[in-house]
């Protein structure tokens, strides 16, 4: 998606009415699927008429949806920063509160999208796989690595056999050696994507490991691999990609896993509490 198109979709001119906001947000959040969209499918996804979608696109300067798709194909992958030539405007927006207000509203919108993910068949499948696998591995790279490690630590309170795979052995053999027949890999990656993410996902699937892919709507291969894909809204603003959306989705996944496992987690939580007291890592209440 070109920087020009992104700027246009986020401009006040493109968001004059409630319908404008809905259509712009839909286009931004469904970039990976846009080549397969029609005016009808967009209208149904947004809850407006096809005529409204057509009028909106023409008002933005496009002859129709195919014209918009051509514009999207011209765009290169975005880097984490999108601020070149925008510092004066961003600083003005920050001073009068518009910048943070816009970022907060985006996070609110993203949380709404995450709620819809929790109602999907993919979400239910992911929770089931996390609850029933004999071993669960979590892998991530770059700036989402810390978020993934946090997730691995959290689900280890609910069930045993959880580990973060850092790949430092160069083989990911702990995931791929076939020693355990019921393994699950939670692979987390968002743009800019790690070069080994798809390779690991595909090799894990070939090895019989169930793959849960947590990614964003810029991932063009999420539907092309054998995996349960949880696709979040991607970063939209000009500033550094934040982790709020990712953390929210993973926290909800942990909560749902706890409920799914029910009373079976009680003994584990009690034992972990005993160990925490034994090694004195926490203050006495």
UniProtKB/TrEMBL annotation:
Residue ranges of every copy of the HTH rpiR-type domain listed in the record: 3-79
Domain of life: Bacteria
One Pfam family this sequence matches: HTH_6
InterPro entries the record matches: Homeodomain-like_sf, HTH_RpiR, RpiR-like, WH-like_DNA-bd_sf
GO molecular function, one term: carbohydrate derivative binding
Stated name of the protein: RpiR family transcriptional regulator
């Amino acid at each position: 998606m070109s920087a020009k198109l992104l700027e246009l979709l986020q401009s006040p001119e493109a968001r004059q009415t409630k319908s404008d906001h809905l259509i712009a947000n839909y286009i931004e959040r469904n970039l990976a699927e846009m080549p397969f969209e029609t005016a009808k499918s967009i209208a149904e996804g947004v809850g407006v008429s096809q005529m409204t979608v057509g009028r909106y696109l023409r008002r933005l300067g496009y002859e129709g949806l195919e014209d918009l798709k051509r514009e999207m194909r011209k765009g290169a992958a975005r880097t984490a920063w999108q601020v070149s030539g925008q510092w004066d405007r961003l600083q003005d927006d920050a001073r009068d509160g518009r910048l943070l207000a816009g970022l907060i509203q985006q996070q609110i919108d993203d949380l709404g999208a995450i709620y819809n993910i929790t109602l999907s068949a993919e979400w239910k499948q992911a929770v089931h796989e996390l609850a029933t696998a004999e071993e669960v591995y979590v892998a991530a790279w770059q700036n989402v690595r810390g978020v993934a490690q946090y997730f691995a630590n959290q689900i280890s309170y609910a069930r045993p056999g959880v580990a973060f795979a850092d790949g430092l052995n160069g083989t990911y053999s702990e995931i791929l050696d076939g020693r355990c027949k019921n393994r699950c890999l939670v692979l987390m990656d968002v743009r800019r994507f790690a070069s080994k993410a798809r390779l690991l996902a595909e090799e894990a699937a070939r090895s019989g490991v169930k793959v849960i892919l947590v990614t964003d709507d810029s991932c063009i291969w999420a539907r092309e691999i054998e995996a349960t894909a949880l696709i979040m809204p991607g970063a939209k603003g000009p500033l550094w990609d934040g982790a709020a959306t990712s953390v929210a989705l993973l926290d909800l996944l942990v909560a749902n896993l706890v409920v799914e496992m029910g009373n079976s987690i009680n003994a584990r939580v009690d034992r972990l509490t005993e160990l925490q007291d034994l090694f004195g890592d926490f203050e006495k209440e």
